[in-house]
Design goal:
222 residues, alpha/beta, Rossmann fold, seven-stranded parallel sheet, 8 helices, globular
Length: 222
């Protein structure tokens, strides 16, 4: 019975996610689902990305957390872009309907890229589609290089993997080559970006890639 209930929940969610995806495509919006464990640096990464996109693209942000508006406040203060907070009240992930309710607060006709910061968790978010065109997993150096082995589905479903806090490599036993090889074995098409918000390492490559993905989303609208 529990398996049937879970399948029904996922089926309903997938239906709404498909509606979201259709709308995003019609509007030419690139929607990105950012997933990571708590403390991996999702909000900091998004803020650094937004600062580099200012004047180039119109961005909006959906922040997902169990409680508080801390991250939304950071986005609104630091990047001055439209941002909306979803508090799940205990749920370990966002779902497609939550995202649908949130993006209604934005002018989608003036949005090029929608950043969706999922709840910090390496399990539940991977199973729930939101209507996104891109899935990005952020994994920080202090977490260690074994996360792809422990949480394979999260990395299997990723379009890009961000290795954050790269400035800490000298202080942490993190085998970057092993980390990448493990993920590539699960997901050969994944793109890797190694970044540091402290030194700005890697952000130029990431932003160039992101702009190209937005361009493709715009072209698919036609």
């Amino acid at each position: 019975m529990q398996v049937k209930v879970v399948k029904n929940v996922l089926s309903i969610n997938d239906s709404v996610a498909a509606e979201n995806a259709t709308l995003f495509k019609e509007k030419g919006i690139l929607a990105i689902n950012f997933m990571a464990s708590p403390g991996a640096g999702k909000t900091t990464f998004i803020l650094n990305t937004l600062s580099r996109l200012a004047g180039l693209l119109n961005s909006a942000v959906i922040e997902g957390d169990i409680a508080s508006s801390i991250d939304t406040d950071k986005i609104q203060k630091g990047a001055k872009v439209p941002a909306y907070q979803i508090n799940t009240g205990g749920s370990c992930h966002l779902d497609a309907n939550m995202v649908r309710q949130a993006y209604r607060h934005f002018n989608l006709d003036k949005t090029d890229v929608l950043f969706i910061e999922n709840v910090g968790n390496l399990v539940c978010p991977a199973s729930f589609k939101l209507g996104e065109q891109m899935r990005v997993v952020i994994s920080s150096v202090p977490e260690g290089d074994d996360k792809p082995q422990k949480y394979p589905y999260m990395f299997e479903s990723a379009d890009a993997v961000i290795i954050s806090k790269a400035d800490l490599f000298p202080y942490i036993n993190f085998n970057l080559e092993h980390f990448k090889q493990t993920i590539a074995g699960l997901n050969p098409k994944v793109r890797f970006f190694t970044v540091s918000a402290t030194t700005s390492e890697g952000f130029d490559d990431w932003v160039a890639y992101l702009i190209e993905q937005v361009k493709e989303a715009k072209e698919s609208k036609r």
